[in-house]
Write a structure and sequence with these properties.
Among the domains are: 176 residues, 3-Layer(aba) Sandwich (Rossmann fold); 70 residues. 37% of the residues lie in helices and 23% in strands. It is of the alpha/beta class. The strands form 4 sheets. A 6-stranded mixed sheet has the order 6-7-8-3-9-10, with helices on both faces.
């Protein structure tokens, strides 16, 4: 692995005498609001040593991202440091003006933000964005900066860096864009890297590659890294020191080995218990008795009612979809096959986990099943009726039986609608029930997803991520479906919220007899809910089988690769099982 070389003479006298590269004491951060000052960080202490990774862990709202932004002088409007000390290489940073911060930011402290889609300039080639850091800090001329940017992209692990340097962010994959951010953050050879959820939006295999590279930078150059994350599994694999934050305060801190194997605070223990792992699966209902759940919809013509052998609820056969390649030219028409002969079955009350990396075809498969994309060939049979061929009223009736739960509850719900408006919209569109009955339906749906009475009067924008996803699930249930297609339904959520949503899905399935097609890139999450698992790669299902069997003894190399990339599984389990660090 190619990593950056340390700039000569960058160790300060303080570092040479053993003083931590970063020392934060009593840090208080507040935000001005209409009701006064909201304290986001209250009395934070932490240190970061050269050549080590210090992780700051906590849920959304714990104060960890505010801490990261304060360390680089980038608190958002209304935010300010109210007290405390931040010393970098022995020099106090609190109270610096913007001009002084520009000398520190990028040159001595590098930031790797969470979302490259928001952090990169969409109208500027990525090589130019890397070169700009060098020019701003006077480290290269315009001509030299262009060549040096290519070297930095190569060091960050981008293939064919000279070509990538000329490309725009939208032409790169998510992992490639994140590597561009790493090149920008390390361009000036800073002594401290602040990585704010640097891999939360990436597939597990890409995540592992990015973290391997960052760990190599830290180990080889002696740079200190502050890793801000909600993912204790990543922390277990990478960090030497852990700081756990909850509600603006540090509740536990210490060496990673100590915190993860012998947590003292209840909040830390809860984070560890909620972290999804391959080997600690959620308890599943026994499906061998073939009894119908108490609240399941009943159809007197179904195979169960007539005594016939139960047919699968969903049967997908030979499903294929290709898309034209942009820029191929009229004389050489080309296409990319996103879904290539996919087939599987899903029984009533069963969960099939469909797992694969971005670009594997799993989301396109979901859209074909839902009728949001038209298949080139193949069939999607719901109780024997082909969803891909029916039209008009029959199509509308079929689609009431299949509903979609989207990945991002922040994007899938109109933030200006009240929860009541969101839940009654499907009823209005399908003309279900009388208007005067809708209030009772809304209250029932909210109770189903464990949201309190009164939530219906709030707007989506006023809800947390977990509350929004519960509303999204309630909205999907409004039409009384038999099948929910869940496309990465917890990937945007913190691990504790994620665990509660997964528990909710299992509970709803057991009460209402729902079937789930559960799509994810994360095998540890899929393991929590699935009866069977199908693994997709390059548009094809390469392996499928009962969940326990596939997770215990995978046969395809790609499945083995996905399992190997799941972070923290061994160490998280050792903590929850109260065993020693190994």
């Amino acid at each position: 692995m190619n990593v950056v070389n340390p700039a000569p003479g960058t160790a300060s006298p303080a570092e040479r005498t053993g003083t931590p590269l970063l020392a934060v004491r009593g840090l208080r951060i507040g935000y001005r609001t209409s009701d006064g000052t909201h304290i986001a960080v209250d009395g934070l202490d932490l240190t970061a040593a050269a050549g080590q990774i210090t992780a700051v862990v906590g849920e959304s709202g714990s104060g960890k991202s505010s801490t990261a932004h304060a360390l680089i002088g980038l608190l958002p409007a209304g935010g300010s440091v109210l007290g405390g000390s931040v010393r970098l290489q022995g020099e106090e940073l609190t109270g610096l003006g913007e001009r002084a911060w520009r000398e520190v930011r990028g040159r001595r402290v590098g930031l790797i933000p969470q979302d490259p889609g928001l952090s990169l300039d969409p109208v500027k080639p990525v090589g130019g964005q890397v070169a700009e850091v060098l020019r701003v800090h006077g480290l290269a001329t315009r001509r030299d900066a262009t060549a040096r940017a290519v070297d930095l992209l190569a060091e960050a692990g981008l293939p064919d860096p000279a070509q990538r340097a000329r490309q725009y962010p939208h032409e790169l994959s998510g992992g490639m864009r994140q590597r561009v951010l790493i090149a920008i953050a390390t361009a000036a050879r800073p002594r401290l890297l602040v990585a704010d959820e640097p891999t939360s939006a990436l597939d597990v295999t890409v995540q592992r590659q990015i973290l391997d590279h960052l760990q190599g930078v830290v180990t080889t150059t002696g740079t200190a890294m502050l890793l801000v994350t909600h993912d204790l599994a990543v922390v277990a694999d990478r960090a030497q020191h852990v700081v756990v934050m909850s509600q603006a305060r540090v509740v536990e801190a210490g060496p990673a080995e100590q915190v993860l194997t012998d947590p003292q605070h209840p909040y830390t223990r809860r984070l560890l218990a909620d972290a999804p792992t391959i080997t600690a699966r959620a308890p599943r209902r026994d499906r061998t008795d073939n009894t119908e759940p108490p609240d399941a919809p009943h159809d007197s013509t179904s195979p169960e009612a007539t005594g016939a052998t139960a047919a699968p609820l969903l049967r997908v056969t030979g499903l294929t979809r290709a898309f034209p390649v942009r820029g191929a030219g009229l004389s050489r028409r080309r296409s990319r096959t996103a879904v290539d002969g996919v087939g599987f079955e899903l029984d009533r009350g069963e969960t099939l986990g469909l797992v694969g990396e971005s670009g594997s075809g799993k989301s396109t498969t979901a859209r074909l099943i839902l009728g949001l994309e038209r298949a080139d060939s193949g069939a999607v049979l719901l109780d024997g009726a082909d969803v891909t061929t029916v039209r008009g009223a029959a199509r509308r009736a079929l689609h009431r039986r299949i509903q979609f739960v989207y990945q991002n509850p922040y994007a899938s719900l109109n933030p200006r609608f009240t929860v009541e408006e969101l839940l009654t919209e499907p009823l209005r569109n399908h003309r279900i029930g009388a208007k005067e009955q809708w209030g009772a339906t809304v209250r029932r749906l909210l109770a189903d997803v464990a949201l309190p009475a009164g939530t219906e009067r709030r707007k989506a924008a006023e809800l947390s991520g977990g509350q929004r996803q519960r509303v999204a699930i309630a909205r999907a249930l409004a039409l009384g479906p038999e099948l929910l297609v869940c496309d990465e339904p917890v990937s945007a959520l913190d691990v504790t919220v994620q665990a509660r949503i997964l528990e909710l899905l299992i509970d709803l399935q057991e009460r209402h007899g729902l079937s789930y097609l559960f799509i994810s890139h994360d095998l540890a999450v899929v393991a929590q809910v699935s009866d069977r698992i199908a693994v997709m790669r390059d548009g094809r299902i390469v392996e499928s089988g009962p969940a326990d069997e596939l997770l215990r003894s995978p046969s395809h190399p790609y499945t083995k690769e996905l399992l190997a990339a799941v972070p923290g599984d061994r160490r998280i389990n050792s903590a929850t099982e109260d065993t020693s660090w190994s």
